[in-house]
Design a protein that fits this description.
Blueprint lengths: L5 H34 L7 H24 L4 H6 L1 H5 L1 H31 L4 H4 L2 H18 L7 E10 L13 H9 L1 H9 L15 H12 L2 H6 L3 E3 L3 H6 L3 H10 L2 H6 L1 E10 L6 H48 L11 H36 L5 H29 L1 H12 L4 H5 L3 H7 L1 H6 L11
Antiparallel strand pairs: 1-3, 2-3
Helix pairs in contact: 1-2, 1-17, 2-5, 2-7, 2-17, 5-7, 5-15, 5-16, 8-13, 9-10, 15-16, 16-17, 17-18
Length: 462
Amino acid sequence: MVHISDETVNEVRHVVQKILVPCIFVIGVLGNSVSVYVLTRKRMRCTTNIYLTALAITDIFFLTMGLLLSFQHYQYIHLHVKLYWELYGTFTWLCDACAYISIYIAVCFTIERFIAIRYPLKRQTFCTESLAKKVIAGVTIFCVLSTMSTFFEHEASVEYQLLDSEGKPCTLNDTSPTHISLAMENGVSFLNSIEGSGGNSDADVIMATTSEDVMVNHLKRSLPQQENEAFPSIVNIPSPEAVLSSSSMASSQNQSEILPIDVLQSCKNVTYYVDGPGILGQNDEYDKIWSYVSLIVYVLLPLGVLATFNCFLVVMVKRSNTLRRKMTNASSMRKPKDRPSTTSVSQENRVTITLIAVVVCFIICQLPWAAYLIVRLQNPGLDFNLQRVLGNVFNFLSALNAAANFFLYCVLSDKYRKTVRELITGRSGRHERGTLTSTSLMFHNTSRCSYRPAPSGHPGIK
């Protein structure tokens, strides 16, 4: 079995959560904001672009929640921001909801594109702006409500840790097995040495497996009763002189081996806020059932639908390109006035290719996470550190996918690039202002975008 050390986990978390996630957040929010601006322009409005606008807005919220969740790896948040941990369940809930909304929006516009190409006469029924808005609203409500249980899996919890002046956990200079054994054997005598004659009994002491845990447990017990109830944020450890003077000479010799003087002088017991299990987080049956439900409903089912309909779209695009080449060759033998226009067919294919690219990128980034969920359910004893590393990597892939659509649009859509260029330069091209080409006409009237029955009249992002 693969074993991952704690040092490896910390390195992965540092790179992913503290470097890559903030970078992806900035790039993704800027790119999706531009997409929202471009896709909501009057000439760009149509059913396909309504779905893509909703996808961009959802990705912005997903990236924001992902950034907020990454703050849990900062020491300052643990020490000073209790409100963050009270809202942690909300952040997790909204992050999951946004991820699932993105999945089903991709499913919706893939099916919409399939209907638009395969059944062009049914566009006026299934490919309308009003229906697209209703579908997006329905998907959003379903995903938000169905993931609400995630909120009750988390609860703010308070712990108390020994930290040095730099905010790092206190460790012994020598953690050899001999010292650990001495710590286990003399834990109670050390406790009594701190509290004096009023020490706790052996039954009240929880033995730790490391010398660091012994230090933490003893320090908690050493606080006066009234301070234990109030739980001050920072409590100074008794000085070494007080510890040594309140015990016998035999026990003080063992204590000096357990806790070096410099550790006692620099360590402080501090309030440490963490995420704890909520009502549902403590229920093993719920965890097992919800794992299977989320895997099927939010991962396997939508990915299967996307893969199936995407294959259909690829086949139809290939057939359309073959037909267009034949029409072009045939029209070259005719007089110019008798040649059929193939511009609309090419336009349709560019729209479809763009959406295919969006879905393929989505599947590539989500498939590793789906495989990981299946493996984890089948192997409950999977190394915990390995799960943490894979979770960080696969969550980053999801964030990367949320930031990638802007670049796909720029590469595959001429109209999108032109609109972005106008946004940057602040001026539009003379050609578009002076003449109304067939492409600009297609974007000018919303009704044409939504209701035209012929295969050539369904523009989207190109």
